[in-house]
Design goal:
This protein is mostly beta strands. 5% of the residues lie in helices and 37% in strands. The strands form seven sheets. Strands 6-7-3-10-11 form a five-stranded antiparallel sheet, with no helix packed on it. Strands 12, 13, 14, 19 and 23 form a five-stranded antiparallel sheet that branches. A four-stranded mixed sheet has the order 1-2-8-5, with no helix packed on it. The longest helix is centred in the first third of the chain and has 19 residues. The termini are far apart.
Length: 350
Amino acid sequence: MLKSRITKLVAAFVLIAFVASPAFVHAAALNDAGVRLGRLGISATTGNDLFVTTKFNTTPTSVAKVRLTFPASFTVTTGTPTVGTTGFPNTPSATVLPGSLTAAATAGSRTIVVSGATSGSLNNTTLYGFTIPSGTVQNPASAGQYSVTVESLTSADATIDTSTVSVYIYGAVSNADQVAVNASVASSFSFSLSANSDTVPKADPTTIQTSTGVNMVVSTNSALGYTAYVKSANGQLSSAVSPTTPIVTGTFNGTADTVAAGTTSYTFVPSTGTACSTCNGSLAYDGEYNVVGGTQGGSFNGTNFASFVSRNGYTNADTVSLKERVAVSSTIGAANDYTDTLTIVAAGNF
């Protein structure tokens, strides 16, 4: 009889101790909890920041801290990482955990405790968030699923709410969570002339005449730019009516010619028109065609191509005005059919 009573008393004591012991008090689960690792590759540490979200369950009037506890395979570096409160993703939409937040990371317990939450501003309907910078956590060396514990604590470190969050570490190499993006841009080049004919006003020995002009437009995405070339079919303006007195070009010697009234001269005059809106480098005119003022022009290189302008960078559109400047002596016969054909080309320097 006595033995039976003792047995019952012991059982009752154990039951009371079990119920009363804090170790067996079951904390409520958080309404929401998430831990986004910045890297999911094995052993990753560089770039492995944390984005933590939590929605409290119990009315959080006594919440002062949030604690993360990582499993044994993770490495946590002891320190005081800066708690981040900006740069949250759009989804999930999280509100900054209010308060003057500080963090303490402990290697031995593999915990990160964020302190300083303002409990009076908290509720159990808002999803709160914060970040922990990379360098604090290193992933396990083995792939697989792992569990991270998220807890809300009082200022005395008593657990209020707690949830377990699953994360997955992936891959046989540390960069298995990354995609190397490779791209290429095709070379581009375009060329156009605004017209295919140009007219020099009627010349006489008392004046210098310059044509209306044609616009050349060149675009290229080459960092080395492009070069434009000109070639005269005949090196002169010839007339069927007065074939014995052509208007010949000057001397091709790397320097612009000076055109004077009363002398015979047939020259090429390129000049910059509308400036490009997206370009780099600069336009440079070859010495022969580096024309200054209204009395100079460049001679043609016989019937061969001669470069006249180039850019040493990319351009969305270079506009270069192409004109001819003519002077005639009194020995040039009168006629309305003086003509020549200029070939204008350009090439990208890739």
